[in-house]
Amino acid sequence: MSLYVLKFGGSSVATTTRIKHIVEIIAGFIREKHKVVVVTSAMQGVTNQLIDLTRFFSALPINREYDAVISTGEQVAAGLLAMALNSAHISAQSMTSWQIPIYVQGDYSDAGITKVSPEKIFKLLDKGIIPVITGFQGISENSDIYTIGRGGSDATACAVARAINADECWIYTDVDGVYTADPRVVLNARKLEEVSYDDMIELASWGAKVLQTKSTQIAKDYGVRLRVLSSFAEGKGTQIIDYTKYASSTQVIGIAHSLDCFAIYFAPDNLKKLLQPFNLMMRDYDEIILMPKTLQTETQTIISASGVNAKIDNDIGAVTVVCRVPDFVRKTLSEHGVYDKYEIKQTLIHEHSMTFIVPYQQTIPLVTELHEYCIIKHT
After folding, report:
1. Can you count the helices (H) and strands (E) in the chain?
2. Topology of 3-241 in CATH?
3. In terms of CATH architecture, what is 252-378?
4. Cα(256)–Cα(95) distance, rounded to whole angstroms?
5. Burial state string for 1-19 with b = 16 or more CB within 10 A and e = fewer than 16
6. Which residue, of 71, 89, 280, 320, has the fewest CB within 10 Å?
C-alpha cells in the first residue's frame, strides 16, 4: 500500500463528464489498496470568469476581497468531485484551505505556502475517507484567504505531499508529460521520460504550462517524488527527479515560450518600487520588465497615476531555450541566419537558458525553428 497525492487541473475537472472520469482514475488507486489524497483546481475557465467579475468594480482589484472571490472556484470543484466520489460509493470529503489549514505568507495573489497541518488529513484517511482539498489558496495568520498564483494548485499538491510524507505526487493535466516543446504547436516535439527539478523550474518559469514553478521548487527542496501525466489518456508521463542525463548532443533540454506577457521599457529607477505589489509575478532586467498580460490594466493604471515615463510593448512573445551550453545556441542562431530572419528585440542571458523577445507573430515560428536546429537535428 502506498500513499499518493493526486492533483487534477482545470481541464481535468472542466465538466461533470470529466469529473466522472476522474472518479474512475481514483477508483483504480483504491482497487489497488492505495491511500489517496486529492487536490483540485477550479473547473476550466471559472477563475477567469471570477477575475472578470472583480474588474467590474475595480481597475486595480488585487487585494483581500479579490483573493476571496477568485479562490471560490476551487471550492466548487472540490465539492462536486467529493459528491461524485460519494455517489460512486467511494467515501470522500471536500476540505478548504482554512479547514486543513494551509498557511501562507506574502502578497495577495502570489503568496507562498509555509505550512500544511496534516492532522485532519490523516484523520480522514484513517476513517477510509478521501480528502478532496482546494488548491491555489491558503490562509494567513489573520485567517485571510490568499491565493498563490495561477497554476498554484500544483504547489498545493506538492506541499500537501511533503506534509503527509506521500510516496508520490502525481500532477494530472491535459498533456501526457513534459515535452521538448509545446506539442500543441511543435508537432515533432518529443516527450521526456524524466526531467531534472532545475530544468523543469526553468521551463515552467518561461511558459511551459505543465507545472507551476513554485510546485517544482517545493518538490526539489523537500524531495517530493513528482510525476506529470494526462487525465485524458493512459501512460506513465514524465518523472521529475534530482538529475537526468537526458539532453541532445547540444545539451538543449527543451524550448518554452510565452504569448501571455508584455514588456515595459523604463527610464526612472523608481518603477520597480511602484510595481512592488507584483514583484513575484514579473521578471525584471536592466532594460526591460516582463509581466503577464493579466496584469496589464493594473500596471497601466499605476504608471498613468504616477506619471512615470515608461514604454509598454504589447506586441511581444518570449522564446526560451533551456540548455547547459548557451554559447551553442548563439552559434546555431548565427549559422542558420536566425538573427537575420527574426526581429529579436531583446536577448536575455541566464546561466542555463537564453530568452529571445520577438514580435508576437514571430514567436511560434521561432520556437519551431529553434526546436529543429537545437534538438531534432542533434539527437
Report:
1. 13, 22
2. Carbamate kinase (3.40.1160)
3. 2-Layer Sandwich (3.30)
4. 34
5. eeebbbbbbbbbbbeeebb
6. 89
pLDDT digits (tens, 9 = 90+) for 184-226: 899 999 999 999 898 888 888 777 777 878 888 898 998 999 9
Residue found under cell 511543435: 186
CB 236: neighbour CB atoms within 10 A? 11
Supply the pTM of this predicted model: 0.86
Q: Which residues, including other chains, have CB under 8 Å from residue 31's CB and lie 6 or more apart?
A: none
Place of cell 505531499: 161
pLDDT mean over 48-61: 83
- Of 49-53, 113-117, 179-183, 286-290, where does the model show the most confidence? 113-117
Q: Which amino acid is at 18?
A: R
Q: Would you call 346 exposed, middle or buried from its count of C-beta atoms within 10 A (0-12, 13-18, 19+)? A: middle
Task: Return the domain boundaries, the chain.
Answer: 3-241, 252-378
